[in-house]
Please model this.
Amino acid sequence: MDNFLDFEKPIAALEGKIRDLESLDSGSDLEINDDVAKLRQKASQLLKNTYTKLTPWQKTQVARHVDRPKLNRIIAELIEDFTPLAGDRGFAEDLAINGGLGRFRGKTVMVIGTEKGHDLETRLKHNFGMARPEGYRKAQRLMKMADQFGVPVLTFVDTSGAYPGIGAEERGQAEAIARSIQVSMDLRVPVIASIVGEGGSGGAVALATANKILMFENAIYSVISPEGCAAILWKTREKAQDAATAMKLTAQDLQGLGIIDRIIEEPLGGAQRDVSGAILSLGDAVEEELDALLKKEPGELREERRRKFLAMGRLDGVE
Model:
């Protein structure tokens, strides 16, 4: 992996030494092989020590890593016979949200998710995963279609939030997000949401109003970005680290608060180090949750989802 984060610099230095030694190795130098083995063991231990003690701000950096699993890669590895369905039938196609029908481990599903892109060209194409109203209205259309045909909905979230541009606001951004949440609440089919990177603001909730919310262990999920929170509370983005800690945005905090249901373990060093391995773990978790939800009646699924979200933030004994 070439894209190291700031706190990974000691790891990068060790792995650089390993590459240098391997470039000298002719295959018969036992001393070099022994040195490489020792360095690999040291690097692995350092990686483990680092990732078992990540701060909320460091987890925020990991969640935003350019090499983490993206929606299109997840679809390619988990969904067979995927047929994309485009447009909101009202204004335009929004490439920040991708969706369509496919087969997940033998079951027909509707897939909806945000795509950030993996380089500058694709990030610009997908607007960095920040959807406009037409994106959320497309999501509503696909949710309703899934409900009509009794097809489970799988959503994958990786966005810093909905697009805040003037045009998006003029076309009803807040209404589109609220309507997506309302549509999700009314579905009579299983809905499973997975936070795979950054789950930011209402732009994330619009696709994560689900029966079960899964989350990668180094992903984040919050009502606002740490930088945005710091700018509001302290009038400076330099307090983003303090904001990240105060906001309880990590998977571990959110599971304790009852916001998410399941944490998906990532490969050592984060999902960005073994994307296929991370996606496989994601698929296994989704399959297990989906199998359990498919045993429930449509009315039960809807009622459970409603109760789940109405209970969030409620104080004991207060109606």
Summary: The mean pLDDT is 93. The CA atoms of residues 83 and 101 lie 5 Å apart. Residues 6-53 form one domain. Strands lie at 79-84, 97-104, 107-114, 153-159, 191-200, 212-216, 220-222, 262-264.
